[in-house]
Amino acid sequence: MISLIEVFKKSFSFLTRREQRDFYFVVLLGCVNSLAQLVGLAALLPVLRLAFGEQEHQSVEFFGFQAPSYIGINEVLLFASVLVVASAAIQILHSYSLNRYVKRVRTGISVRVLRSFLSKSLTNFYSIPRSKLVRDVDVFGNNISNGVLSTAVVIISRIFLLLLFLAWLLTINPFLTLYVSCFFSFFYILVAFFVKRYIKETSKRVFVEKARLNDIKIDVYDAFREVILAGARASVLSEFKEIKRSVSTGEANITIVSAIPKFILEAVGMLGILLAALYLEGGDWWVENIAVLGFAAYRLIPAMQQMYKSVNQFLSVSAIFSSIEDALQLEADSLHDEVKSLSPTSISLEKVCYSHPGSASALFQNVSLSIPLSGICVVCGESGSGKSTFLDLLMGLVVPDSGSLLIDGVPLKLCRARWFETVSYCASGYGLVGSTVEDIVCLGSNVDSQRLKKALNASGFDKVVDDRGILVSSADVRSIGLSDGEVSRLVISRALYREGKVLFMDEVFSSLDTSSAKAIIARIGSIYPELCIIAVSHRPEEFDDVNFLIKTPLDDF
């Protein structure tokens, strides 16, 4: 099992240099905050001595220094109040800095997790369940920022606080200070030893169950019609309720386990103060003894409780840390090309072999062919014969088991990024990213109104905009209720907006009739005359003037 120190070291390595530097600053501010708390409370002790002593005969000490004889309780109280207020101001500053830091790191880690997913190859990306992606992007940022870094700041600053307070209290009553600190420490260590395994096991279970909850929500959204018509609503709700209850119970139990020592020790601490007040009254040091127990209850117990809760959070994160490491491990396949520019005219396959992961049989075996990147190329064949996979190979989203893909004679691995800049893609699976027409078509890039108008005109979606009165810059398309055919036109517009050299289409006309598909192809050919189209289709008759026809399976190549 990975140690807590290793969890922190690896979590720290995921941070940027600025985030690491800011961590040191927040820790330093936490230690300053601890010192300020000690100074603020220590300033109250002279007030107690004056309040319960003979004021006119009692000399006053401030942190070991003798005060002038004319200093009375009013002056002492004013000075102590100033120090307490200053201590509170530093606490507020530390709390603000820590929360800002945690939120910034949480955002950064979440972005890095998503970037890690997006850096994967097509095969590896789609091997990840959607529920895992949804869960990990949100959860891992929170685990690193709150579960590791924030708790590390708390532990370090509270250790510093405890050491300062113990050193100070030892000067007042060494025996009572050692007794109280040893008792509290032993109690927390004993409780932590017994709950350690439970926290780890519960954290693992909750982590897995949260992914299942996301599965249910995603599946219900995708198959809403089937769920309603099949009368499966009750069973879906029952399963969701059962898993949600289990997750809530697990999280509540961890919270309860983390809070139990606090309640017990608060009761014990108050009992100790009452007993001390009863048996120590009248002694020379009873004010100091009460101060030791009172400050222990006011600062030592909360500090130990915060450390205990922080260790429990560490344990929860360590239980799932291997998953966090995998999610943040960026693949080495980064897009750094040796080719600086590319204007492709052909794509070639040389003895390409490929089989699906886990499959014993090859989908493509020693395929060699060259496709001119001009006009229209149609890939057709029976379902399951490898049409879409062949398209993925040509686009460079899938890496062959052996053989080479060449763009104008250059290996694709040497010009992958440049190749991606020249191609666009649309499919029947849709996958709308964004809410408005502008968001979806432009994919978050700066909107070029002329390019947008041109793309919408080519796909015929401009007529949908006019007929429905859609405001392309503000209307939420998802709430309008577009038909499958209208969504197909919108997806085609998105691909055309890129104005690439090659347009890959994967059965994007499956929701449209043949005449509508022909009309769109004709408009694309007239508006984008230099565009090459490589299309997968079960209906080759949708395309006129086909330059190149490929039939799958590719046994003849």
Mean pLDDT metric: 80
- SSE order, as H and E? HHHEEHHHHHHHHEEEHEEHEHHHHEHEE
Q: Determine the N-to-C terminus distance.
A: 52 Å
Which CATH architecture of the largest domain would you pick? Up-down Bundle
Overall domain count: 2
CATH topology of the largest domain: ABC transporter transmembrane region fold
Give the helix/strand class: alpha/beta
Could you say which overall geometry the principal axes of the C-alpha atoms support?
elongated
Q: Tell me roughly what share of residues is in helical segments.
A: 55-70%
Q: How much beta, percentage-wise?
A: 5-15%
List descriptors.
557 residues, ABC transporter transmembrane region fold, 4-stranded antiparallel β-sheet, alpha/beta, 5-stranded parallel β-sheet, 2 domains, elongated
Tell me what the structure shows.
This protein has helices spanning about 5-15, 15-40, 45-50, 75-120, 120-125, 130-170, 175-220, 225-230, 235-280, 285-320, 320-330, 385-395, 415-420, 435-440, 450-460, 460-470, 485-495, 515-525; strands at about 60, 65, 345-355, 365-370, 375-380, 400-405, 410, 425, 500-505, 530-535, 550. The longest helix is centred in the middle third of the chain and has 49 residues, at about 175-220. The chain has about 550 residues and is of the alpha/beta class. It has 2 domains: about 5-195 and about 260-330, ABC transporter transmembrane region fold (Up-down Bundle), CATH 1.20.1560; about 345-550, 3-Layer(aba) Sandwich (Rossmann fold), CATH 3.40.50.
